[in-house]
Amino acid sequence: MTAEFMLITFTLFLAGVLAVPIASRLGLGSVLGYLLAGIVISPFLHWIGADVVALQHFSEFGVVMMLFIVGLEMNPKSLWAMRSRIFVLGGLQVTVTTLLVMGVAMAFGQPWSVGLAIGLVFALSSTAIVNQTLREKGLLRSDGGQASFSVLLMQDIAVIPMLALIPLLALPELTEAMSHGHTGGDHGSGGLNLSLVQGLNGWQTGLVTLAAIAGVVFIGTYLTTPIFRFVARARLRELFVTTALMMVLGIALLMTLVGLSPALGTFLAGVVMAGSEYRHELESDIDPFKGIFLGVFFITVGASIDFGLLGQNIALVLGLTVGLIILKSAILLLLGQAFKLEGGDKWLFGLGLAQAGEFGFVLLSFTVANAVIPDGVADILLLVVALSMLLTPALFILYDRVIAPRYSYEDEREADKIEAPSQIIIAGHGRFGGIVNRGLRAAGLDTTVLDYSSEQLEMLRRFKISVHFGDATRPDLLHAAGIEEAKILVVAIDGKEAITGLTRYVCAHYPHVHVIARAVDRDHVYDLWSVGCRDVIRETYDSSLRATRSAFEALGHSRATAERMVAEFDASDREVMLELAELHDINIPMVENEAYMQRVSEMMEVWQEQMAGRVYNAKKKVD
Q: Where is 395: in which H helix or E strand?
């Protein structure tokens, strides 16, 4: 390991460590943080002679790992259910974008073959950025997220015929110039050329490709479990991690040898392995490496921008980049409309895939090597690809902050009219509020249930449960629900901020109402206490106590002893929480609240000893 290698690695990691937390804190997301980090360190990397392009190709393995994990989270049945979106929606997106970009290029005076090649490059979107951002924001399971994923998958499939088509578009004058050594280096010469299909005709290549895919399916279905069982006998975690990486790398290599996208192959392997008993272990082992490689990849995208060339052609590059984003967004929005994507999902689909993709770098190098696109044009197009990827996080921010609040599905429906409000209002009818409602109604008590999920309410109404659609945090809806005459409000909605906001409002404006608030965690208990609620229920606390009691019983204690020990622990914990709750200030971050932190520090050792003593005495008393 050379000093140069360690310096480059340290620089990449340092840039990510500094930039990503700052970007995340500003609400920009990790991807934009990595891209900006790459831009900042770009001059330094070029000064020390780092091969940014080689780093980018190496770190693309993160995209391969990401698609493997995405595949693990799916199964063949769900993939089959998406076939229409994958092949029809995805196919239309690739075809229409290619043809329209080709038309624009020809309008700018490019030959049809160059225009077609540019269209193929720009038809692709960034699997790495889009999938990573959708997963970060929890949007991958939404209709817009699923449509985006389907199109990205089709684009990966489309790369195969693109690679076959591009050499057929070679320009005679460029081919002649390359043969005389006037252009572009020694692409592909002098290195080891590994391919299982080189020199084969069409049907032979097809057979080898099908055999490789069948091999991946066979390995994932029949060999994964025996291999990992064998490795597990060694009881070495690092060997398990190595095996997981070996399988992903081996499948990616096999796909590359037969001319397929390695990301597509590992996605297929992930889908096949989704039913394996080792699925979760595979995911947890691969995920950290995926994050590291993806981070380095995004940094290299930012570092690959040639600012000298950009400065000389700033108007042209920016115009082409913005034009590409507008064109692709328009195509995607029209396709989304045709495939019945509505509201925010349509805009998520339209904006999320509007950039060019990382495979554009590969295709552009391939077009230059095959005398399809001149070097000068390719250099400008590389800048357009990189800048469009750089602007993608900004498009997601636009969606999050401007579009999503206006076009969410739930906002399109008006709140229900509440004809006969009761004295018990339950805000939220999920896994927490639903049980509360069932218990109260079983005792013959009437409740007014408010929930903001129309799908959930439609299901409940099929079981003849009286529920009302609406946002319980809205004062006008609370008024319609009869908050003035209500005795009890059970706050069971999702989200810390929403729970705290609703609780604060009711405690301040309707002090006669007894508020029972759901707390997400221990810190949330203090927030709710701070805004005036005195009946706070930690959503997993009671079940955790029951689990503790079961653990005591499993260790040989009687039911009475176990219950007494848990009761003493519970009492001690509540006493401490009440004391600390009085010192908590919701307007001051906990670590900056000196009185709170000082008291916690004083209490820790004493509290632990006292609690242990009380539990032990409870055990002795019962025994």
A: helix 375-398
Two tokens, residue 42 = 């770009």
Distance CA 526, CA 300 (A): 44
Question: Do the beta carbons of residue 115 and residue 106 sit within 8 Å?
Answer: yes
Q: Which 8-state DSSP code applies to residue 452? A: S
Q: Give the Cα separation of 213 and 219 in Å (integer).
A: 10
Q: What token pair was written down for 536?
A: 């706070």
Q: Could you give phi then psi for residue 538, rounded to 5 degrees? A: -75, 125
Q: Return the DSSP state at 118.
A: H
Question: Cβ(383)–Cβ(309) under 8 Å?
Answer: yes
What is the per-residue pLDDT across 239-261, written as a single tens digit (0 to 9) for each? 888 888 888 888 888 888 887 77
Could you give the CA distance from residue 471 to residue 450 in angstroms, rounded to a whole number?
Answer: 7
Q: How far is CA 96 from CA 261, 385, 591, 621, in A?
A: 22, 19, 55, 79
**For 136-185, what is each residue's pLDDT tens digit?**
777 877 788 889 988 988 887 787 678 768 877 877 766 666 555 544 44
Which tokens in the block code for residue 527? 């927030």
Residue 537 and residue 491: Cα distance in Å, rounded? 10
Helices (H), 453-558: 454-462, 475-480, 496-509, 522-530, 541-554
Give the tokens for residue 408: 């969410």
The DSSP letter of residue 526 is H
Q: Which of 68, 459, 16 is nearest to 268 (CA)?
A: 68
Alpha carbon of 466 to those of 391, 441, 453, 457, 516: distances in Å?
Answer: 47, 11, 14, 9, 21
- E strands, 286-416, are none
